[in-house]
Specification:
By secondary structure, this protein is an alpha+beta fold. The protein has 15 helices and 14 strands. The chain has helices at about 50-55, 60, 65-70, 140-155, 195-200, 205-220, 230-250, 300-320, 325-355, 365-375, 380-390, 410-425, 430-440, 450-460, 465-475, and strands spanning about 10, 30-35, 45, 75, 85, 90, 95, 105-110, 115-125, 140, 160-175, 180-190, 255, 275-280. It binds adenosine monophosphate (AMP) and magnesium ion (MG). Adenosine monophosphate (AMP) binds near residues 101, 103 and 263.
Length: about 500
């Protein structure tokens, strides 16, 4: 085997806009002050310049050799200690008291243009105290998947971690065979998870729980500090943020795939993209993840699972909520009950807008449910049907392009008659309506077969041009992009991807 000559980790001469992680001010047991594990030949695949600019980071530096060394975990930023964070979590319903950053490192924070603190984290940066049997690395394919899907979510306006950079390592990692390694740099409002609270609750460490809750309030929900019961207000805010988030997922057909409690963030951002995917043809039971045999995290289960996860957060927070456990449980239950109303508020309003309805009528939800039923029975494409409604809402039933998306178009026609009747009861503003529908019904989503195509080109042929092109198309999901119409199409039968794999 070749003698690999890897430079010892160094410290970059520049801070380049990075600042020390505020998390480092929490007690030692919250993290490991981790050493870097340099890689052999890092090369920049892509820097998200727009995001770097929004974060006030030095683009010139990040694209230089020194900056690439930072993005590869070969150098730390000046005066910033890399941290691997401790957390626990329920994985597929089973509690694991210690997970933690087994292949990730928090390499600092940036203060963005809005004055908000954002975490910068490497994924695939090598082993840490939390690695258990893992190699601490990431494969190129999952890195590109997370890059594409998280940026697509951001362009759709859905709260999410962001992709700052992807770097190839010049090393292979061993999964089902040898595959090229890569390191992903992601940006998050923070990396606090439900599992972070569970980590300290499982250890009976109330002091740490309190410090964590105070940190979460200060960082994400500062208004909770002024509430009569700040920790209850924190829980209430997290419940509301996740209810809004999952409703937004449901409205675009996004399936997270691994909604374990360690993969659900306190800030309410989508985090930890693994075997995630967007639905093509609509079916509520859709599952892509290769490790989700029971369908626990199927599309239609996501709201229920979010409540289950939040109940685990509430349990972990009980000691903070009231002196007596009975009282704490009663308070927590009352807060958890509010999930449904918040979720319904966002989901129902979103459905109405997707159908082009601005007023509220009792028949709206049955109308929406009726469409979903016909879509499911006819294997119609979720994204194209809603987009199509906006394109031909002026068409008479029996005409227009949308009906062709259904195996038995007459079933759609039957529904469209009801929809037209309902539209007739809207206050008139038909010109604005089409635009409104187009602004909520995307034309371009990261279709799974396209993501796979991008990964194949990069992994098999070191060709990153499909990756670049897909990213540029997905940056404008609501716009008509005639030059890229091929990206609109659902997969042909032979292109269909039925399974997605975790990033491990
Ligand atoms: P994930 O499935 O990415 O949410 O990860 C679940 C847990 O497994 C986390 O604690 C990760 O840090 C850890 N993990 C995943 N992949 C690896 C790896 N290749 N090496 C070490 N730890 C890993
Ligand atoms: Mg995770």
């Amino acid at each position: 085997m070749d003698q690999v000559n890897i430079e010892a980790p160094r410290q970059a001469d520049l801070a380049a806009g990075f600042v020390q992680s505020s998390y480092a001010e929490l007690p030692d047991r919250f993290y490991q002050r981790a050493d870097l594990s340099p890689v052999r030949a890092p090369k920049l695949i892509r820097l998200n310049r727009q995001l770097a600019e929004d974060l006030n980071l030095d683009i010139g530096f990040l694209e230089s050799e020194g900056g690439i060394a930072v993005l590869a975990g070969n150098a730390s930023v000046k005066n910033v200690q890399p941290l691997a964070l401790a957390y626990a979590g329920h994985q597929f319903g089973n509690f694991v008291p210690q997970l933690g950053d087994g292949r990730a490192l928090l390499i600092g924070e940036a203060i963005d243009r809005g004055g908000k603190r954002r975490d910068i984290q490497l994924k695939g940066s090598g082993r840490t105290r939390f690695s258990r049997g893992g190699d601490g690395r990431a494969a190129l394919g999952p890195v590109l998947r997370e890059y594409v899907v998280s940026e697509a979510m951001a362009a759709l306006g859905i709260p999410t971690t962001r992709a700052l950079a992807a770097v190839s390592t010049g090393e292979m990692v061993f999964r089902e065979g040898a595959v090229p390694g890569a390191i992903f740099t992601r940006v998050a409002a923070s990396h606090l998870r439900i599992g972070t609270f569970q980590y300290f609750a499982a250890r009976g460490d109330h002091e740490a729980l309190k410090a964590l809750a105070d940190y979460a309030i200060e960082r994400h929900y500062s208004e909770a500090a002024a509430a009569e019961t700040p920790y209850l207000a924190l829980l209430e805010n997290v419940v509301a943020a996740q209810a809004r988030l999952v409703a937004r997922w449901m409205l675009v057909g996004f399936i997270h795939g691994v909604m374990n409690t360690d993969n659900m963030s306190i800030s309410g951002e989508t985090i930890d993209y693994g075997p995630c995917a967007f639905m093509d043809s609509y079916h509520p039971g859709t599952v892509f993840s290769s490790i989700d045999a029971g369908g626990r995290y199927a599309y239609a289960n996501q709201p229920r699972i979010a409540v289950w996860n939040l109940a685990r957060l509430a349990e972990a927070m009980l000691p903070l909520l009231a002196a007596s456990e009975d009282e704490a449980v009663a308070l927590a239950e009352a807060v958890l009950k509010k999930f449904q109303a918040t979720y319904d508020g966002v989901f129902h309003k979103g459905l109405r807008r997707k159908l082009g309805l601005s007023a509220e009528h009792p028949e709206d939800l049955p109308l929406a449910a009726g469409l979903l039923e016909v879509m499911s029975a006819n294997e119609a494409d979720f994204t194209l049907v809603f987009r199509g409604l906006g394109d031909d809402f002026a068409a008479v039933p029996g005409e227009g392009g949308t009906r062709k998306l259904f195996k038995r178009p007459e079933e759609f026609d039957g529904w469209a008659v009801r929809w037209k009747e309902r539209l007739a009861r809207e206050p008139e503003f038909d010109v604005g309506r089409q635009e409104m529908m187009r602004s909520v019904n995307p034309k371009y989503i990261p279709r799974n077969h396209r993501v796979e195509e991008v990964i194949r080109a990069a992994v098999d042929r070191s060709d990153f041009s499909p990756f670049e092109e897909l990213l540029s198309v997905l940056a404008r999901p609501f716009d008509e992009q005639p030059a890229h119409s091929a990206y609109v199409d659902p997969p042909k039968p032979e292109e269909r991807v039925l399974e997605t794999f975790c990033g491990t």
